[in-house]
Design brief:
Elements: E1 6-10, H1 16-32, E2 38-44, E3 57-63, E4 70-74, H2 85-108, E5 119-126, E6 131-136, E7 141-145, E8 162-170, E9 173-181
Parallel strand pairs: 1-2, 7-9
Antiparallel strand pairs: 2-3, 3-4, 5-6, 5-8, 6-7, 8-9
Helix pairs in contact: 1-2
Length: 188
């Protein structure tokens, strides 16, 4: 770390044990990603009267190169969680590790790209035979059966309606294994 770790206590007296745990958790993050520029951790115990007892709050602010700052705020709110400062610290640093892992993946270009399902239009329906065909943008026709239509909506389909589908190879050629109508604004 280029800037020394900064630990602050608010509404609570300083604790060597808590500070040691924060340093330990920060060291784990640095082992995972050694290019963290700075880390600031604030441990607080807001003055609130609760039936279950007072809770702790941990805020972590990390600066990393090539991306936005990573900010974690473990605030228990009204749920009564985090009555143990060490549990709160653990949860906050777990969240920080996940965000740091996401940052590393983005930085290395290893982010998954989710392709949208192929889409087409209903070319023809044969309700008496429980199947139909989808016309794709590349000029093919894909067979689909009533059972492959989402939410049992086969009877609601109309010729010319836009659908999304999952394609597989069947006994007689390509077939759609899952068909779902596309609603307004191309949302399924």
């Amino acid at each position: 770390m280029q800037v020394p770790l900064e630990i602050q206590f608010q509404d609570i007296g300083p604790s060597e044990a808590v500070e040691a745990r924060v340093r330990e958790e920060t060291a784990k993050l640095e082992q995972f990603f050694d290019r963290i520029t700075s880390t600031r951790v604030v441990v607080s115990k807001p003055h609130q009267k609760r039936l279950k007892g007072n809770t702790y709050r941990v805020r972590i602010h990390m600066t990393v190169p090539g991306g936005a700052d990573i900010v974690i705020d473990r605030d228990p709110g009204d749920r009564g969680a985090h009555e143990d400062v060490y549990v709160t610290i653990r949860d906050a640093f777990r969240a920080a590790r996940r965000q740091l892992q996401d940052h590393v993946r983005r930085h290395q270009g290893k982010v998954k790209i989710h392709e949208s399902a192929p889409h087409g239009t209903i070319a023809s329906l044969h309700p008496g035979e429980d199947h139909g065909f989808i016309a794709t943008s590349d000029g093919r026709e894909i067979y689909f059966h009533r059972n492959s239509v989402a939410d049992d909506c086969f009877n609601d389909l109309e010729a010319g309606q836009e659908v999304r589908f999952a394609e597989d190879v069947g006994d007689k050629g390509p077939q759609a294994t899952f068909v779902t109508p596309v609603g307004k604004h191309h949302l399924t």
